[in-house]
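User: Fold this one for me? It's Arylsulfatase G.
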Amino acid sequence: MQSSDTQPQAGRFVDFHSAASTCSPSRASLLTGRLGIRNGVTHNFAVASVGGLPLNETTLAAVLKEAGYITAVIGKWHLGHSGLYHPNFRGFDYYFGIPYSHDMGCTDTPGYNLPPCLACPRHSAATSSHGRDCYTKVALPLFENITIIQQPVNLTGLAAEYAEKATQFIQRASESGRPFFLYLALAHMHVPLVLAQPPSSSSFPEPYRASLREMDALVGRIKDKVDGGGKENTFLWFTGDNGPWAQKCELAGSVGPFSGAWQRQRGGSAAKQTTWEGGHRVPALAYWPGRIPANVTSAALLSTTDIFPTLVSLAKASLPPNRRFDGSDVSEILFGQSHQGHKTLFHPNSGAAGKDGEIKALRLAQYKAFYTTGGAKACDGSIGLEEHHQPPLIFNLDQDIQEQVPLDVKAGEYRAVLPAITRALTDFLQDIATDNVSTADYSHDPAATPCCNPQHIVCRCQACCSSWNREP
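Assistant: Here's what I get for Arylsulfatase G.
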């Protein structure tokens, strides 16, 4: 997170984790403070999905709106777009963005992808599929509130539009004198990589770096807007929703030291869709001048599920009743008053192995235990076979951040920590069994597909007018 001229005085959190390692579940957990095993969102929603985040789940936006905040989501939603699942009915006063991932529909600016995808067809003879990973039948829509204002969306200019809408929202909220909550969900580091300006080099790694710089500049623009007025009352929290999508090779980024070496030796990737560190450990920065210590790095164990209870607490609002939360109020850690994060974190299956949403991996202090392992599709096309472990594989991350060599089951260290791991998982599952849990509707209906012009190939249309404050 960097403005054009200076490095921000932000706190950095290096043991911070997404609540899942794929799109819809991680976003649902961020906005509810609850893992998918509680909130019902265990895998991604589709273009034709009827449902979304269950309606009995209360979003962070709904809580803050009830507390007097103006709320907005700008960017990717991916928690249901049909009927009452649309963000305007989930606590957000304003919505500008795309309903799911930007590779889930064709565009006229297809960008960098592996395999490459074609632009949207313009006549029926051109609708044949160009690879199973490419969407060609329906164009990617751009929503403003409940209205599709562009289909296909112009991805080349989308980042600039997001920045403009975000700064407008902040300005209007400031003028209103009311507090605001802005959930800015960018898609820069997810293929296809589409740049406002083409990279200077034709080499494949360059588009990723260029996209990262563009995202950096956009976040910097938002920060500069906040710094221009009211920064002493405004908290910026920057993080990610999952690790790199390894099958996209050079266009996916890097897991850094979190290589999941044990899995890589057996095939498949240990990044997105897996429960290896490279799947769910994500960057995190927190910025609030005068409140969050500047240029401090924290190793406290934290999660995106903490965002919900922390912001609710800071807003002096109340958590929704009759349910339990996986996140905690970590404001004391953010403010440098404590260094004690979670003792345990639970990592749900996210597509690579096991039943989606089930807990087959967990963290206990520096130890990481796996009851099920598997590798997602890697750049070389390999997939790691699902394996079950009883007793579990246990890694000491303080000594083996690459997750390369599990502890010997006969070693004293293994025998000492196994009872605590077993007890932690047992207690967690018992807590789930007595909680108010939800079930998501994952059914499909072609009629639920966002389409502004069914008479035109790929639903192509262009709205003439839109207003930021159009009512839902």
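One thing worth pointing out: Residues 11-120+131-260+280-342+447-459 form a domain with the Alkaline Phosphatase, subunit A fold (CATH 3.40.720.10).
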